[in-house]
Design a protein that fits this description.
The radius of gyration is 14 Å and the shape is elongated. The protein is built from two helices and no strands. By secondary structure, it is mainly alpha-helical.
């Protein structure tokens, strides 16, 4: 699970610096999109954990 989260964050970082090379995370756009991505990652991690617990 940590590998997939790390891969997701790495992919997000790569896409970010490719699409917005001059826009840092602390810019207004970064301030909006970063919590949204973080919330989405939390939901996906929670769903993965829930599915993993129900499988056992």
């Amino acid at each position: 699970m940590l590998t997939s989260i790390s891969f997701t964050i790495d992919t997000y970082w790569t896409v970010w610096i490719t699409m917005f090379p001059s826009v840092p995370f602390w810019s207004p756009h970064g301030a909006v999109i970063t919590p949204i991505i973080f919330a989405a990652l939390c939901v996906l991690a929670g769903k993965y954990s829930w599915d993993l617990l129900r499988r056992t």
